[in-house]
Design a protein that fits this description.
Helices cover 50% and strands 20% of the residues. It has 178 residues and is α+β, with helices and mostly antiparallel strands. The N terminus is likely disordered.
């Protein structure tokens, strides 16, 4: 039996090369909010603020109560800030990421290595043991309750569409899908 070690070793390695874009970080934060408790609190806070605004406005229009201008002005502002917060965070992440130039990621069974024009970072799977997949990217997350650390692996950075399946296999073997 003849075994080609180079070919077999390469099956467990997936490489990505990409420039970060806003959608990478908005996607990561959106998925992160679905994973962590704070995201659910933000989601329900927006709903409660919108409901309070509708109730106050309808009572003021119906004439049953004197309008409380403080609430009628501040509730929409708070609700819009809750909606815009992830986009503002993503914009800040993008500013930091663009300074580093092109990103190259190597994903193996041991972990992932992220290389930029200015730095190299290695992350073992124990540091980020969870992941989510969307139509556009894979996101790995730390296991603390707020998922404070994450890595973005956009599918557009893959050299071949078949690499997405190989990357999914590596992540499924080593991480928990959430």
């Amino acid at each position: 039996m003849v075994m080609d070690m180079g070919r077999d070793a390469e099956q467990d390695v997936v490489e990505l090369a990409y420039q970060p874009v806003m959608g990478d970080f908005t996607g990561a934060l959106r998925e992160c909010n679905r994973v962590r408790r704070r995201g659910w609190i933000r989601y329900w806070s927006f709903g409660l603020a919108a409901l309070a605004f509708v109730l106050k406005a309808s009572l003021a229009v119906a004439g049953g109560e004197k309008p409380d201008w403080f609430l009628l002005i501040w509730l929409p502002l708070v609700a819009s800030l809750l909606l815009l917060a992830p986009r503002l965070q993503a914009r800040a992440f993008l500013k930091l990421a663009v300074r580093n130039g092109a990103y190259r990621a190597t994903v193996t069974d041991a972990g992932l290595t992220m290389t930029t024009d200015n730095s190299t970072t290695s992350v073992k799977w124990a540091a980020q043991p969870r992941y989510r997949e969307t139509k556009n990217a894979f996101f790995t997350y730390s296991d603390d309750k707020n998922a404070s650390c994450f890595t973005v692996l956009p599918k557009r950075g893959l050299g071949d569409p078949a690499d997405a399946d190989r990357l999914r296999e590596i992540l499924d073997r080593n991480l928990t899908r959430v």
